[in-house]
Amino acid sequence: MAEIPRFPRRATFLKENRQTDTSRPLARVIFDHLEARADTNLSKILTIFITVLISLNIAAVVVGTLPWVELRFGGFLKGFEVFSVVVFTVEYLLRVATCTADPRYRGAFVGRLRFAMTGMALVDLVAILPFFLPMLVRLDLRFVRALRLFRLFRFFKMARYSESLQTLANVFRAKREELLITGFVVLILLVFSASAMFYIEHEKQPEVFSSIPAAMWWAIVTLTSVGYGDAYPVTTAGKFVAGFICVMGIGMVALPAGILASGFNEELGRGKPAKEPPQSDPPSGTFDTQEKNIVCPHCGKRL
User: Fold this and answer.
1) Taking the model in full, what pTM does it have?
2) Are 109 and 156 in a shared domain?
3) CA-CA distance, 200 to 189, in Å (whole number)?
């Protein structure tokens, strides 16, 4: 009689798994934790910490523009900014240092350079660059204030930890060709509308439609169905052309919406498991072959 295989004891099983985890390179462990690939409590805590820190940074940038907040809590906001930059800088440097553990970024220099040029790595760099750039280069104060707005790019760091933003990025990536074609068509229609309105309305309204670039403002607000009313045609031909452009604008706005809706439907449908066909019940009095061979892993008796 063949010997029945038995499962290893729980202590032996955990010991073997622990040895397997510790045998992994440290760089790989760090990179997996930073990329939220490791299924551990430390990885979950790190993800929550970075997510909360990014959210608080966005709130600090927005609230910090209030004069009374900057006057009363300016020191605290600056300290929080320094703390956040230190955390984001350490995170960025660790990502660059350990990225070679990923097979896609093999190579001490070329691999790290390839990783540094990826979209999310550039977002991480832009998130900390406004803090260090004034220290390295002497800049005008107005330009320094403009650089502070780049701190809002830290919001895009959420894409590493948010499935919704990852889904949105996948949709834009999958439908980029259709969106580019739609954008090109809109650009052609914009130039045509501005040119036609310039030649029709220039003599009657030389101040409003002074040139084709000036007429583009009217074309943009008309194609997008906004219609500020600061520029409008007064001639009969101009009104006729404007009505045609308004109708075309409705279709041009609906095209990208339909493309994105189709992309979201495909992306969300891709994550759903396929339905298995219903299995027919076996005839009465018969048993499945697999059911006959099921045995208890401890005592060896058939179930």
Assistant:
1) 0.57
2) yes
3) 16
